[in-house]
């Protein structure tokens, strides 16, 4: 095993729906104690992967190792340390919030005191817990779903798009809760199609596209990927003239408008030299700035080009 | 955020697997809680009471035309109520009950949640089956109990019918309860498997209603006793008046009840194997 140890690992995980391949050779590596952001556009296979990790689906090939044990062999035992919220929370509408927790608590064989604890954790008041779940707003349903997942005090918490339906305040509270859980030793696998959400809490990231894992690594590694992709944007009178006058400096530039040029950013000196040369050549500088691609662009770049890294 | 992580200290030992019996007990405990405020529970109470209520009303208002000249009213009363229950109500009740019980999970999209909990598929399968068997028994017990109670009540409010002057056929009612329960098991198992496999409310109810109607249409067919949906009616027909004006039923299982048991065992075994092939979520 590598350091840090892996709490969850898949080897060559593949899944087909009938003849249609859904997942291909997924090798997830979720380090112990991490918040692992599982990113991908809708329909890329995030939910299917999570269902495989819970043993809800049988893989066409490959295996899942949870806490170092084979999931296929020890499913029931391992699931007692896993809490999951997959897609919409599974709530019994005819029961109150409290009774919903109670049903799962009994199924897990957990002490009764835990129910109040998880209600507190997710910020559901005892008053709302006494109301039937059918009266719950989307945000409250999501909180109750999270409470259900937290019941076993899981070593691994799997959340599929957990901020669905939460208002901005709820999203911030959710983030704080995830950080707190992580500091207490819970490993969290978090799926989302929004990089901005993952970026704020994740320590590690896996990007899935069309059933293939196209990136996996720590968040800093993902951020480093984008520094190589910064650009310099020059606004002047005539882009064409500038490029003809300064073939050395602007050779690799592309003309993006009548008066705009875009070229790869290398260094601060590059900017100074370019400005000097432009002035010397008698060309006006209306604007000269470097553009850092957002993590979002990097993510889009990853998922569009499908480049394996 | 820093990528340095706590390592080995959070390693997780393999948790203990709860024993099959413990899994079943936990699942059953959860399933009982999920019954609260469901239509399944109300349906069981209603189905036990309705045939009694109908028969009571018939005897209350028109009893004098049915019971004449001081004969024992109990046999007629019990067999009329049992016919009302056995012909249509009981099979339809079992069809609706199984569909409702299974639909509790389907409606809530809870199968994926249930199967991600540390209980095996077997525990989930057996637990719901036990709930079904229990509610089915509850409805039948309620029916038998209310039936006797209604007879005693008629003795009080309509003394002219003579219920108070004759012994209630307690033993026959008890034997009929046993016979009828066995007779419902075959169709219960078939409906249970259909509900679990299709995970919809409409499919099992449609299949069940169609089967009940088809059975009634086929009543004269020599093999009708092999159809599980005909068994409750078959049992009702086995209750006979004695020459002395009493009511009796055999103390051994009838052929159609053996068929019902065979359907019960066969459907559950085959169904369980089929369900293993189905995706869990």
From TrEMBL, chain A:
Pfam families: ABC_tran (PF00005). Coiled coil: none annotated. This is ATP-binding cassette domain-containing protein. It comes from the Bacteria. InterPro entries: AAA+_ATPase (IPR003593), ABC_transporter-like_ATP-bd (IPR003439), ABC_transporter-like_CS (IPR017871), P-loop_NTPase (IPR027417). GO terms for molecular function: ATP binding; ATP hydrolysis activity. Belongs to the ABC transporter superfamily. It comes from Hymenobacter wooponensis. Gene3D superfamilies: P-loop containing nucleotide triphosphate hydrolases (3.40.50.300). Keywords: ATP-binding, Nucleotide-binding, Transport. Residues 8-235 form the ABC transporter domain.
UniProtKB/TrEMBL annotation, chain B:
Pfam families: ABC2_membrane_4. Keywords: Membrane, Transmembrane, Transmembrane helix. The keyword Membrane applies. The chain crosses the membrane at residues 39-61, 81-104, 125-153, 173-194, 201-221, 258-275. Signal peptide: none annotated. CDD domains: ABC-2_lan_permease-like. This is ABC transporter permease. It comes from Hymenobacter wooponensis. The lineage of its organism: Bacteria, Pseudomonadati, Bacteroidota, Cytophagia, Cytophagales.
